[in-house]
Amino acid sequence: MQAISSSYKDPNGFVFLQDGIYYRSVHSLYKPQYMQLMQSGLYEKLIQKKLLIPHEEVEHIPLEQDQFFILKPVQLPVISYAYEWSFSMLQDAAICTLQCALEAISFGMILKDANTFNIQFLAGKPVLIDTLSFDIYNPKESWIAYRQFCEHFVAPLLLMKYNHTSLNKLLIAYPNGIPLSVCASMLPMKARLNIHGYLHIFLQQKISTKGKQTNQKAAFSQQKLLHLLHGLLSFIQKLKAPTAQTTWDNYYAETILSKDYLARKKEIVSTYLQNIPFDTLLDVGANDGEFSLLYQNTNKTIIAMDEDRNCIEHLYQFCKKNNVTNIHPLIVELTAPSPSLGWHVNERPAIFSRIHADVTLALALIHHLAIANNLPLEKIISFFLTLSEYLIIEFVDKQDPKVQELLQHREDIFPNYTREDFENILRKNYEIIQQNSVGETLRTIYLLKRK
């Protein structure tokens, strides 16, 4: 029973993997807290509100020394991290954390951890996945996780709001939370003039810099704690990301070749997918999810990746509004994907170590990788080989208007970017099951199976 690489800090238990299933060990040390969580009604309340991941207590795994229970949580189809989320995804994760903290107080408990890694998305909604994050509430103590919450949630949200919506990527450099001093140094004056920005970032940073300690244990009442949590919740709920147009906004509405092209492309892709077995589909370069949404609210798991933050934000908002529960939008730049992080560089696995798919969609993408990013076709295909058994990929000829746009302001140093070279590389690695031209365009879509 070996703890996974990210589960080593909590003396109350750990997560382990057995026969492909994740379990949580609860140690005897945590028995009083666990019993209160389960018997007070807090667990049922959180499950009812879809704020906490459900679990069952299992008996088929023998307990080891100092173990109290083994839990089997609902298994997550996708594991993602905050630096892969859009603004609203991080905002909703923060709201979930605060709602868990508020519910806990009503049942005599307190949320002791408030980091982004404890939140995952299940059925389209953020849920707390660390069942051992609750402690018995001491009415005289302040919220022990307050600073952690500010560094993991408030700091990146404010940087995304006031500076740039890509700045949650700072959580790659600071996986334990963006230091308040770093956040304060980057935020503009108008963030300091906001009462919540001042209290939760600048004032905290000022106090810690001066080394001042407050005797909150003796003075912090439940009323003050509730006031703090409700204030944070109201503040987070009202945050809005700045609107800024990006390259791929309204791509399918404004920049595609024609409506006939899109309709024909959907027809081809749908036919291909109907002819192969799959449970999980990875849509790489998904844009706003036009093709991911072909399988919305089915029994398929759809992972929609794109580097454009606005596209992923729009897709998340669409799924949220329309209660689409099986699509997982993620911000991922293929040429600089999320790396492995943390202790021994394996505490938080890289994005493509966490993603497992049966089929990958790569539509209107290869020319951006090959022409805009100078990636040889061999390297591109080698990458896709690692992702899934099946691949649906669109080749865009060099004479296509979009490729010509890419070549407009640079020298054509891509003599091997041809359909013949592309197909020769494919045949070394894949069986070409089907291929179809997209209408009258210079584009071809291939259905491939890994050899």
What is the count of distinct domains?
Answer: 2
Classification by helices and strands = alpha/beta
Q: What is the correct CATH architecture of the largest domain? A: 3-Layer(aba) Sandwich
Uncertain segments are 214-218
Q: What is the number of helices?
A: 18
CA(first)-CA(last) distance = 36 Å
Report helical residue fraction. 25-40%
Number of strands: 15
**Average residue-wise pLDDT:** 93
Q: Which descriptor suits the 3D outline?
A: globular
Radius of gyration, Cα only, in angstroms?
A: 24 Å
CATH superfamily of the largest domain: Vaccinia Virus protein VP39
CATH domain fold name of the largest domain = Rossmann fold
CATH hierarchy, class of the largest domain: Alpha Beta
Characterize the largest beta sheet: strand count, sense, and whether it forms a barrel. 7 strands, mixed
Physical arrangement of strands within the biggest beta sheet: 11-10-9-12-13-15-14
Relative strand content: 15-25%
